[in-house]
Design goal:
By secondary structure, the chain is α+β, with helices and mostly antiparallel strands. It is built from three helices and five strands, in the order H-E-E-E-H-E-E-H. A hairpin with a 3-residue loop joins strand 1 and strand 2. The two termini are 27 Å apart.
Length: 140
């Protein structure tokens, strides 16, 4: 997609602090990082949603994350990391080109990635939702 900022970065039209690249993905530092070293892993082809990404590209994204994570931790002194994919505006996706956030974390950094209110549904409710999901998987 010609106007997509991530596509433009992939094509070299927009500068970025690239830290990794292979034939399927490119990784670069987020310009609005949660913590230093916050890296975005982006497919070179434009896909808006995770479910649109071919399996080999998904695998390349995860391989890149597994390779980058230890380097990011060593380079930043972070103690852990989150891997996050936001899909759709309701989930916080701002750039409509699927991407994986690798977010370095430190104890007490104040970042609450999973800070949404949580519930404790009963077994009956969990079973109902699980069955609905299985049915949708069968439908394809």
């Amino acid at each position: 997609m010609s106007s997509c900022i991530f596509c433009r970065i992939v094509r070299g039209e927009v500068p970025a602090h690239k830290v990794y690249e292979d034939d399927k993905v490119v990784a670069f530092l987020d310009i609005y990082p949660i913590n230093p070293g916050h890296t975005l892993i982006v497919p070179k082809q434009h896909y808006e949603r995770l479910e649109d990404v071919p399996e080999d590209v998904l695998a390349a994204m995860m391989r890149a994350a597994a390779r980058l994570a230890p380097a990011v931790l060593r380079a930043t002194g972070a103690q852990g990391y989150n891997l996050v994919v936001n899909v759709g505006r309701a989930a916080g996706q701002e750039i409509m080109h699927v991407h994986l956030h690798l977010i370095p974390r430190r104890e007490g950094d104040g970042c609450k990635i999973m800070a949404c209110a949580r519930s404790k549904p009963g077994d009956e409710e969990l079973a109902k939702v699980a069955e609905a999901i299985r049915k949708e998987l069968e439908r394809g």
